[in-house]
């Protein structure tokens, strides 16, 4: 079984391939040269894998491209696929998220400005989740420094009517009725940038990323703008699991593909220096759902003055999971042993925004 690694950057997409050992890698690219690639998906459902890439051209706008042959050839989707319907006074600027749904052929897209779209044909056409777009909270959702976008879409693995989403700065929302209505799910998440006494609002938190394991869908993990959290009741309430980390600020949070209690983060300073504490690139792992943390450093560099963005860290689904992260200095690092040891896979790419990997 082979491995494919998609690396989306501010100036195109690179594709890495390796065997199951994941020691030697070959990269091709750039695909979609000079286009921003904020989202990638290796969809392993069906008879053969399908690659999806959310690209954005400064001249032609956003596009979702798909490949049935692991990137040898690509097809554009009709009209860009992700577009607001007639009568909506908005234009999609970027596709920040592409994820598979619980049903065959279903793919969700999260966009900037903050909207969620659903495809029932494998990512060829998309329809707006209208009730979320019309939510009465939307006029009060603000844009973070990276823009206002739904950067997290988590379809429930067993309930097609349930989807959890997150945006900055609006927080976590959830539907249990197939998108007919959406409720905020932010109880216990702190908005540290608000005045004292107002830091636990119903919505408006700057959530950076949310994840979960399909075997335990009621448990969610969240990396916040200052805070790392866990929910054991499907987002109904949240409690901090940041104790033991060198910083509670960061962007990505990744759950192990086979172990629901194992989770990874990449802490960075929350002040002006958005790079790891002491400028040391370190991944931190918890094997007990965030109760305790261990530092993973073997093979990772010191003097690392860059950040890892919210979708620039991922795991593959090999029996012994591989971990990957890409940084804003254009380097991609990988581990074939669940984070115990690391090596640089490729360097000198443009600013890395997204990495996605899978066994194929």
TrEMBL record:
Matching InterPro entries: WD40/YVTN_repeat-like_dom_sf (IPR015943), Xyloglucanase_GH74 (IPR052025)
SUPFAM superfamilies in the record: Oligoxyloglucan reducing end-specific cellobiohydrolase (SSF110296)
Name listed for the protein in its UniProt record: Exo-alpha-sialidase
């Amino acid at each position: 079984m082979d491995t494919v690694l998609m690396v989306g950057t501010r100036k195109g997409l690179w594709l890495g391939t390796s065997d199951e050992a994941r020691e030697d890698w070959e990269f091709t690219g750039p695909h979609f040269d000079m286009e921003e690639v904020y989202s990638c998906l290796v969809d392993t459902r069906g008879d053969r894998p399908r690659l999806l890439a959310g690209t954005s051209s400064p001249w032609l706008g956003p596009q979702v491209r798909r490949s049935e042959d692991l990137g040898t050839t690509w097809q554009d989707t009709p009209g860009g696929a992700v577009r607001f319907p007639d009568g909506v006074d908005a234009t999609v600027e970027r596709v920040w998220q592409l994820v598979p749904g619980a049903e065959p052929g279903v793919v969700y897209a999260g966009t900037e400005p903050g909207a969620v779209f659903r495809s029932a044909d494998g990512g060829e056409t998309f329809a707006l989740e209208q009730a979320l777009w019309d939510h009465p909270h939307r006029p009060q959702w603000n844009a973070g420094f990276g823009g206002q976008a739904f950067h997290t879409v988590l379809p429930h693995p067993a309930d097609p009517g349930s989807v959890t989403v997150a945006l900055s700065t609006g927080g976590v929302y959830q539907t249990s009725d197939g998108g007919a209505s959406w409720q905020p799910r932010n109880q216990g998440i702190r908005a540290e940038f608000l005045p004292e006494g107002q830091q636990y609002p119903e919505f408006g938190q700057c959530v950076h990323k949310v994840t979960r394991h399909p075997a335990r869908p009621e448990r969610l993990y969240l990396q916040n703008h200052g805070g790392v959290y866990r929910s054991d009741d499907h987002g109904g309430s949240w409690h901090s699991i940041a104790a033991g980390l060198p910083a509670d600020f960061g962007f990505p949070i990744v759950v192990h593909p086979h172990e629901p209690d194992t989770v990874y983060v990449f802490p960075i300073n929350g002040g002006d220096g958005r790079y790891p504490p002491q400028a040391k690139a370190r991944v931190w792992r918890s094997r007990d759902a965030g109760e305790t943390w261990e530092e993973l450093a073997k093979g990772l560099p010191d003097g690392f003055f860059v950040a890892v963005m919210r979708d620039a860290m991922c795991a593959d689904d090999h029996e012994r999971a591989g971990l990957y992260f890409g940084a804003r200095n254009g380097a991609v690092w990988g581990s074939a042993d669940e984070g115990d040891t690391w090596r640089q896979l490729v360097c000198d790419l443009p600013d890395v925004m997204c990495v996605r990997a899978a066994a194929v």
